[in-house]
Amino acid sequence: MIKKTLPQERWKDCKMSIPSISWQHMYLANGTAFSPGVYTSDKDYFIDLAAAFRSEIQALYDAGLRSIQVDDPNLTFFVTKDFREGLRGDGVDPEALLDLYIWAHNQVLRDLPADLHMGIHLCRGNMPGQPSFAKGSYEKIAAKVFPKLNYQTFYLEFDDPRVSGHFEPLRFVPQGKNVVLGLVSTKVADLDNKDALVRVYEAAEVMAKGQRRNVSDVLADSLAVSPQCGRASFIINHDVATEDRMWEKLVLVRDVARSIWEDAV
Questions:
Q1: Taking the chain, what is the end-to-end CA distance rounded to the nearest angstrom?
Q2: CA torsion 84→89→95→100, rounded to 10°?
């Protein structure tokens, strides 16, 4: 469908989303992600699954795609106290499981084409009028996830500081990796205001301090803005994702970007 809609020279500008390698492993009961006797360990399971992911990614690349976003609502669960306590109740060490998932993601990213851009969206849920399923600062995972996950770009949700906290965890983002700030909500119908402009500079200051760089340099090569999540995650999203309001919010994102970056489209 994409190829029929766009001329070939624009295919490289498209982005496709795929699920996280940890999805099934996390949502099934401990020890049930694979049949007994098939694999000797979780790592063996993930090695095979990562090979399948790499094969799919290579097929997408061969078809002309150059940008892929992994949607991962799993890693954000590790910011919550209840999830961590639940894991301990099941006899699972939360930090060891987080380490395993980071390792599994990096297995997917091995030996990919150099001009393929890979990003990950650390989602918190997109149900309108409902509380986030991962409320809390990225602080509890930032020291591991940002430096150790080998994605080029992190798509993060910062539309509501009451849910996501503030930007302090971005001090762990190393130079050479990008952050897309999801500042405009896709969960509420009200049009956001342009205080997003100020918040971009706040995030840049935190990253610059962590990387020991100038704010202007971080803004130039490491930051972008976007909506907080997608527009069609749930059919119940219809009151929020009316076509007119969707475009109004996208125009707001565009206007904020143009106010900061001269080369913004």
A1: 24
A2: -110
For residue 79, CA distances in Å to 132, 155, 189, 203, 226 come to 12, 16, 27, 19, 22
pTM: 0.92
Whether residue 230 has pLDDT greater than 60: yes
Cα dihedral: 205, 206, 208, 211 (round 10): 170
Measure Cα distances from 53 to 35, 169, 201 in Å: 20, 29, 36
Please report, rounded to a whole number, the percentage of residues in the chain having pLDDT higher than 70.
Answer: 91
Q: Helices 196-211 and 243-260 meet at what angle, rounded to 10?
A: 50
Find how far residue 193's CA is from the centre of its chain. 23
Burial of 222 (0-12, 13-18, 19+ CB in 10 A): buried
The secondary structure element, H or E, covering residue 180 is strand 178-184
Res 235 pLDDT > 70: no
Amino acid 53 reads F
Flag the least confident range among 95-99, 166-170, 225-229: 225-229
Task: Output b/e per residue, 75-94; b: 16+ Cβ within 10 A.
Answer: bbbbbbeebbeebeeeeeeb
